Amino acid sequence: MYRAEFVISENNKKPFLEFISMLTEDEKADIFSSIDLICELKNRGLRIPEKLSKFLRNGIFELRVHHKNKISRCFYFFVKEQRIIFTHGFIKKTDKTPNNEINKAERLREQYYLNNKEL
């Protein structure tokens, strides 16, 4: 069964959960509902639609969540044992995903692997 987890950074912070804490209750619900949908689709062997999630590069994906007046982007990657690891998120202000946000997701993935050497 696929399940979502969150990166713990080198300073013992959880960037994804810190991002979520800044959102309204409705926005949090939107994001967690989308995460649940990704897990459900993967567990059923179904394709995740690009409207919901897009491959960016180097194993990093972007969860796209539309709220009433803004758009959230949350980054994640897959690891063995059917884990979906979320790194962080941001509020989208431009059409293109900024490279610095993708780079941050890649750095957080590296940190995840350092903390979980058995993977």
Q: What is the H/E string? A: EHHEEEEH
Beta content comes to 25-35%
How much helicity do the residues have?
25-40%
Radius of gyration: 14 Å
Oligomer: single chain
Give the neighbour order of strands across the main sheet. 1-5-4-3-2
Please state the structural category. alpha+beta
Question: What is the tally of beta strands?
Answer: 5
Report mean pLDDT, rounded to a whole number. Answer: 94
CATH architecture: 2-Layer Sandwich
Key terms:
YaeB-like fold; alpha+beta; 5-stranded mixed beta sheet; 119 residues
Task: Describe this structure as you would to a colleague.
The structure is a single chain. This protein is of the alpha+beta class and 119 residues long. The chain has one domain (3-115): YaeB-like fold (2-Layer Sandwich), CATH 3.30.2310.20. It has 3 helices and 5 strands. The chain has helices spanning 15-21, 25-43, 99-115; strands at residues 3-6, 53-57, 60-66, 71-79, 83-92. The chain has a 5-stranded mixed beta sheet.
Helices and strands, with pairings:
Blueprint: E1 3-6, H1 15-21, H2 25-43, E2 53-57, E3 60-66, E4 71-79, E5 83-92, H3 99-115
Parallel strand pairs: 1-5
Antiparallel strand pairs: 2-3, 3-4, 4-5
Short synopsis of the structure:
By secondary structure, the chain is of the alpha+beta class. Helix content is 36%, strand content 29%. It has one domain: YaeB-like fold (2-Layer Sandwich).
